[in-house]
Amino acid sequence: MYPLLAAAALLVAPSTAALSQSAPKTDSDWTTAYAQARSYLSQFTLEEKVNLTTGVGWQGGHCVGNIPAIPRVNFPGLCLQDSPVGVRFADRVSVFPTGINTAATFDRELIRARGEAMGAEFRAKGVNIALGPMMNMGRVAQGGRNWEGFGADPFLTGEAAYETIVGMQSQGIQACAKHYINNEQEHNRTLESSIVDDRFQHEIYTHPFLRSVAAGVASVMCSYKKVNGTYACGNDEMLNDVLKHQIGFKGLVVSDWSATMSTMSASAGLDMTMPGDITFFSGDSYFGGNLTQAVNNGTIPESRVDDMATRILAAWFLLGQNSSSYPPVSFDSFNINDPVQQHIDVQADHYKIIRKIGAASTVLLKNTNKTLPLNKPKSIALIGSDAGPASQGPNSFGDQGGDIGTLALGWGSGTANFSYLVSPLEAIQAQARKDHSSISWYLEDFNTYAAAIAGAYADVAIVFLNADSGEDYITVDGNEGDRKNLTAWHNGDNLVNAVARQNKNTVVVVHSVGPLIVEPWIDNENVTAVLWAGLPGQESGNSLVDVLYGVWNPSGRLAYTIAKDPSDYPAGIVDNSLDIPYTEGLEIDYRHFDAKNITPRFEFGFGLSYTEFAYANLKVTQVNTDTSDAEKTWASGKVASSDVGASLADWLHATYYCVSVDITNTGGVYGAEIPQLYLNPPAAANSPPSILRGFTSLPLDPGKTGTAQFNISRYDMSVWDVVQQGWIKPEGTYGLFVGASSRDKKLEGQLA
Ligand SMILES: *[C@@H]1O[C@H](CO)[C@@H](O)[C@H](O)[C@H]1NC(C)=O
Ligand SMILES: *[C@@H]1O[C@H](CO)[C@@H](O)[C@H](O)[C@H]1NC(C)=O
Ligand SMILES: *[C@@H]1O[C@H](CO)[C@@H](O)[C@H](O)[C@H]1NC(C)=O
Ligand SMILES: *[C@@H]1O[C@H](CO)[C@@H](O)[C@H](O)[C@H]1NC(C)=O
Ligand SMILES: *[C@@H]1O[C@H](CO)[C@@H](O)[C@H](O)[C@H]1NC(C)=O
Ligand SMILES: *[C@@H]1O[C@H](CO)[C@@H](O)[C@H](O)[C@H]1NC(C)=O
Ligand SMILES: *[C@@H]1O[C@H](CO)[C@@H](O)[C@H](O)[C@H]1NC(C)=O
Ligand SMILES: *[C@@H]1O[C@H](CO)[C@@H](O)[C@H](O)[C@H]1NC(C)=O
Ligand SMILES: *[C@@H]1O[C@H](CO)[C@@H](O)[C@H](O)[C@H]1NC(C)=O
Ligand SMILES: *[C@@H]1O[C@H](CO)[C@@H](O)[C@H](O)[C@H]1NC(C)=O
Ligand SMILES: CC(=O)N[C@H]1CO[C@H](CO)[C@@H](O)[C@@H]1O
Asked: Boundaries of each Fibronectin type III-like domain copy (predicted)?
């Protein structure tokens, strides 16, 4: 029992609200939008259609990407703007928790609510296409941009992408699913080629894009990478066959910035080139005049340009952006003194959802003898530079390309400027005032002797660690985007051990872009608690206080595996070759540790709570007894259809089995359990031992029981058949377990 934590004392309860009214865009929404687009397009000349597809060039407009206005037909132009955490290059905006933290909530409602709030800010600033969410896989623990995405499991990533897009687009903003595809490391990203087998591509890397299309995403960004030697933005197989045919994507494909490599990319399925010029400021383009000429000389049919322009206009109509009341662009990305700047405040009360997600994404990894939550400690020492603010403010570095003070974002184009950033020091000090705790701090990292003295006599010493990474155009402390190692920055490991030698109650807080090797101190008897806080955005300190003091009972779960040794991971950064073979196949992250029987330090899906939960009554029911031809064909191991959109067919995604379990809060305090459903495919599937196929967040009062429900579709039970080119059911029976992590099995059963 924790005296602080009566249910009534909770200021910020885990979310119980039903999903808000926002809904995915449907086929019929697209049909309407296409009809509007076709009719409008009939007024456009060839050159005007081409202009819809071609950005005006880097810094040629207010946004990072700009489609010019076409006054003759009253088309206002389009603004495309970064980033997945908020409006980049603008002021009076919110900086939301990162993708990796959002995924760690394992809570669909919070993920959707963040999408709604973010979408509202983009729209209010006059953006048409917001460049996110990012859904590349955490295939390589060191990958520089992993923190922008949703972790190392395709199902979790797919659900997070789905909820984010539904939320964003409910505000009338076009979301952009990126980076299609295989953008899993930064090093040499425009030169190297990802060699990916067709099956692994479908089951791992395209899955989040399939879920994005199911959400009705308006746009997809193709990546800098080559896939099997062909640039992703000119890859007929990946764009036309997989994305537009198999998955049936109806919106537009936009290039990553300068990722278009030829005019013929248009034939391969690229619909829009950004920022338009071949290289920044080059003044020319592969589209523009070249595309018009390619149509005129018969190389590219005009029907293809019509399709490109139709997709661009349909996406615009789909989101209701063809309206005189759509907000005009009111900021300039490149000139703070530009007359367009109106400094419109778009933050509303979004700090509330930001703080909540910050708390809900914090993972409790160790809690010896119930050290946490803190209960009015007499004295607290905060140790390490990550506890406090940066001396030059929260935007000391352009695009956050530096690591001084508390870390709440990685670096690169996936960032935004903080309007404010609450540091742990600031928030814990406010709590100390309420509790009458004495607080002291030592915000230097390298004088471990002085740090240890500073921490020695406090009731609790809290040591702050971080590790940073980002996009390859910025190098920080020798890290060219990707991390060069998996250890803490700023002497962090030594700092923990030095403080723990003097203080038997040392708590470690980690602000990291991804996994760290924690072996140097995790078993230290004096390290009594560890909170993995990730990159929580602007409310960082407040979110941390909510968890430290038990206002929020920790419910975050790891969205990746923390290994004991870097060599335990299945893949690393490739820096000696321009080919990156994805040889681990389906065995990324926990799937590899399971298949190779390697014990991780903390497995995917792991996280502790201040209460305990018991699991009972696993029920498996077949709910859909469809006997259509498609169902029968699939069940016999054959591909049911190769029609456009076959991979999103209703019968394939309809609920096929319902799985439920009863969960009881057997501890003393209110809190949410995150039950997870893993399938154990039959041998014939040739799949990893366990694959995530369901999760939910179940908040419960002490002593109360609730039911967690999971739906399994035929798609969830399918493998991609590379010969037949479709989803089939492997022979044999699927086992399953529901548990508290990818290894903590509570109840086992099977789909039969
Ligand atoms: C097409 O866009 C370019 C600038 O990007 C502009 O110079 C040209 O006038 C536009 N053409 C039409 C027909 O709008
Ligand atoms: C964002 O922060 C950078 C780095 O401090 C600064 O140069 C830029 O002016 C800021 N932009 C806005 C819109 O405040
Ligand atoms: C890449 O090559 C693999 C075989 O090495 C093949 O399975 C896959 O279909 C190819 N993908 C593309 C996009 O070319
Ligand atoms: C057409 O593309 C070529 C590169 O293939 C480039 O050199 C040229 O400047 C482009 N033309 C225009 C009008 O942008
Ligand atoms: C047609 O125009 C395109 C774009 O300028 C050019 O790349 C291509 O070589 C031309 N083809 C012919 C047959 O003239
Ligand atoms: C935890 O509690 C046990 C039993 O009271 C005690 O033996 C042990 O020393 C405690 N551990 C720490 C780290 O305080
Ligand atoms: C790992 O990289 C960080 C950041 O550059 C650096 O501070 C640290 O010393 C490196 N660790 C090792 C063991 O080299
Ligand atoms: C734990 O703390 C005690 C008391 O400060 C100290 O004697 C012991 O060496 C510490 N253990 C470690 C592993 O630092
Ligand atoms: C690609 O990576 C290698 C190895 O790090 C490096 O030497 C080379 O300069 C890189 N190539 C480019 C064009 O950056
Ligand atoms: C599960 O599927 C059933 C039947 O299609 C549906 O009514 C229910 O809402 C679904 N539940 C969830 C949690 O998706
Ligand atoms: C404000 C605006 O852009 N209105 C356009 C909406 O679409 C129709 C065609 O369907 C145009 O004629 C309008 O100019």
From this structure: 673-742
